[in-house]
Amino acid sequence: MAHSKYEYVKAFEREDKLLPNTWIVVRVDGKGFHKFTKEHQFTKPNDITALQLMNHAAAAVMKEIDDLTLAYGQSDEYSFLFKRNTDYYSRREVKLASVIGSLFTAHYVLAWSRFFPDKPLTKPPAFDARAVPYPSIENVRDYFAWRQADCHINNLYNTSFWALVLKGGLTENVAMKRLSKTVAKDKNELLFSEFGINYNDEPEMFKKGSTLVKELKPFTKESRVPIKYADPKYPVVRDDGPDHVIQEITRQETVVTELHCSIIDE
Ligand code: ATP
Ligand code: ATP
Ligand code: MG
Ligand code: MG
Ligand code: MG
Ligand code: MG
């Protein structure tokens, strides 16, 4: 069907290649997770297991797509950074966003029962996705600083809100009113004076979100090689038959490391 008379419909598609030499960021965000987290009774304000499931799904996406170098996640969202010169899907915006959105969702669903063995998945989670090209490394840094600032603001709010509701016995409406017009300092003060919570002591993952980086880690393995091809770089562990030796060779593997660190300049 290569050149059928129907093929003209392809001309309706729009060109959507993202600018070359720019850093592409794809962000996925849970669709209606306010409701989804209620439906699945997430611990408020932060369900650790749910955050770990997000990190797991993101790491799986990182491992699957070589050109992804870094990812940052908080709440129901994750941002993925491509290396500058990637040619993944010819840099087509919709392909990049849709394939990452769907891979992420698939890994989230696939691992759900491992993270929540006693909690059946009763509604299908979905993640929207967008792809944005950034022309300078400064823009990239500011992008991630923006997401981390969002994490901080929301987490301080949510920690205060749920302290008022769960520990203070306020209704959600009253708690919301109580927090309106408060600034960060007021919320820190409220947490400390009314609930004995020092916000600084909250877990780093909640306050800072999670950053995933790819690292090359060396590992060793035994390899059986003909004596005449043995590489003098590696130690010989033992002979194996008249013509072969077992060598301990060193290779590198890509591992994804999770950090809970500051991206924002202090
Ligand atoms: P939209 O479809 O527009 O994104 P949304 O309901 O997902 O709507 P968000 O702004 O993305 O809106 O907010 C995510 C919601 O999910 C927040 O209410 C947040 O508190 C909740 N949430 C996300 N992760 C967790 C978690 N690990 N534990 C508890 N609540 C969470
Ligand atoms: P790309 O990522 O570029 O789409 P692809 O391998 O998915 O690569 P497609 O042109 O989409 O390439 O082809 C889909 C492939 O899946 C074909 O090889 C097709 O035969 C196979 N396939 C799809 N559905 C079925 C099915 N129900 N039974 C057997 N094979 C299938
Ligand atoms: Mg959204
Ligand atoms: Mg959401
Ligand atoms: Mg969100
Ligand atoms: Mg296909």
UniProtKB/TrEMBL annotation:
Keywords: GTP-binding, Magnesium, Metal-binding, Nucleotide-binding, Nucleotidyltransferase, Transferase, tRNA processing. It comes from the Eukaryota. Binds 2 magnesium ions per subunit. Mg(2+) 1 binds at D29, G30, D76. Residues 138-264 form the Thg1 C-terminal domain. Its cofactor is Mg(2+). GTP binds at D29, G30, K31, G32, F33, H34, S75, D76. PANTHER family: TRNA(HIS) GUANYLYLTRANSFERASE-RELATED (PTHR12729). This is tRNA(His) guanylyltransferase. It comes from Allomyces macrogynus (strain ATCC 38327).
